[in-house]
Amino acid sequence: MKAPSGDLLWQHRFNSRLTNCKPRLVESGRFFIYRYGIRGKGIPDMNSRSRKVLITISKLFLAIILTAAASLAGFRSYHQARLRAERAAIRHIAGQYVEVGGQRMNVYTAGSGVRTLVFLAGYGTPSPVFDFKPLYSRLTDHCRIAVIEKFGYGYSDEYAGERAVDIVVDEAREALSRLDITGPFILAAHSAGGIEALWWAEHYPDEVEGIIGLDSSIPAQYTAYRVPQDPDAWEAQDMDEAVSAMAVYDFFMYDIGLIRLLMNPDKMLPALSSNVLTETEKEQYRAIAYDMYCRGSGAAFQRETIMTSRQLADLREYCSSPVPDVPTLFFVSDGRVMERVMEPADWIRIHTEYISGLTNGSIVYLDCGHFVHAERPAETASGIISFIESLDLQGG
């Protein structure tokens, strides 16, 4: 048999040792080639200590991922079980349903008198009926009160459509009409409910005889922000796209339930500390709060913040229209609720300037938080009663 040539001999030896070798990339001149070295000979393998460290880190990383996944799965099960129990506990114990646009809207009424005070809740207030109770329970001997729970709030049905200001106001007007509650009204608006009150007074002036602002929103706040906002420069959003863009956020916050770690109704909602609410009402309020806040970005109250072309047009009109010159009483907090976006002093200043521009306006400064009607109900009620009496004296 012919002996193998040099090249063939090298190949023979190479093949015979291949099974005991590992590849290693080394540089040879301008090229990278694979060299093979027998363990313990030639080019050494990766340092064994480095390999062990790498394996340990990989195992640790995998363990962290698996632990996190198991924790999230466990918390999700806990959250969903709690949420089912909370939703099952909700019972319609306050107010009456009226049909608006084919859906049920809850309206609570009480008291009697010549004047009708209509309460408009701020953005995201879970149950206006219970939230306003510390205040309206002190007013029913002086006037008739009506608390409107917008779609998606309190006991009212959820709603998947447009939530522009003009729509919300017209729904409230229709609900009152179906209950034969006619104006003119005194609109008592908390927070963002002030936008609805001013829209109502501007577009239906014959239906509004007065406005009571409970630390309410006013147009000047947009220019008072540390970073001033100009609605004319905003671009319209598509409703469905805006909701879809929040899918990942919704999954972790509302499906897994991380929102439960961030919210505490008893700390968020001062009405829950009031002795005016019964224990049953407080339990209902808590259950409604968790139910409402866990519906995701497609919930009716969340849709109020989506700047569709219609909502944007409403907001631009709201900011540019003259202030309705109707008798107005403001209760203003210490402004801390706004300190992330504006100086608290500016919150107080813009409300003072608003009132100074009215023919008949007054303001009460309260050293308390944003929910003035629940934190200072006695002082607020006293001011409202005096305001109503002043309207009586004016013959309005």
Properties at a glance:
396 residues; alpha/beta; Rossmann fold; 2 domains; 8-stranded mixed beta sheet; two-stranded antiparallel ribbon; 17 helices; 10 strands; disordered N terminus
Please describe what this structure looks like:
The chain folds into 2 domains: 9-38, no CATH class; 90-394, Rossmann fold. It is 45% helix and 16% strand. The chain contains 17 helices and 10 strands. The strands form 2 sheets. An 8-stranded mixed β-sheet has the order 3-4-6-5-7-8-9-10, with helices on both faces. The protein has a two-stranded antiparallel sheet with strand order 1-2. The radius of gyration is 33 Å and the shape is globular.
Give a topology summary.
Elements: H1 6-17, E1 21-28, E2 31-38, H2 48-89, E3 96-100, E4 103-111, E5 116-120, H3 128-131, H4 133-136, E6 144-149, H5 165-178, E7 185-190, H6 193-203, E8 208-214, H7 221-224, H8 239-244, H9 247-255, H10 259-262, H11 265-268, H12 279-293, H13 300-303, H14 309-320, E9 328-332, H15 344-356, E10 361-365, H16 372-375, H17 377-394
Parallel strand pairs: 5-6, 5-7, 7-8, 8-9, 9-10
Antiparallel strand pairs: 1-2, 3-4, 4-6
Helix pairs in contact: 2-12, 5-6
Short description:
With 396 residues, the chain is an alpha/beta fold.
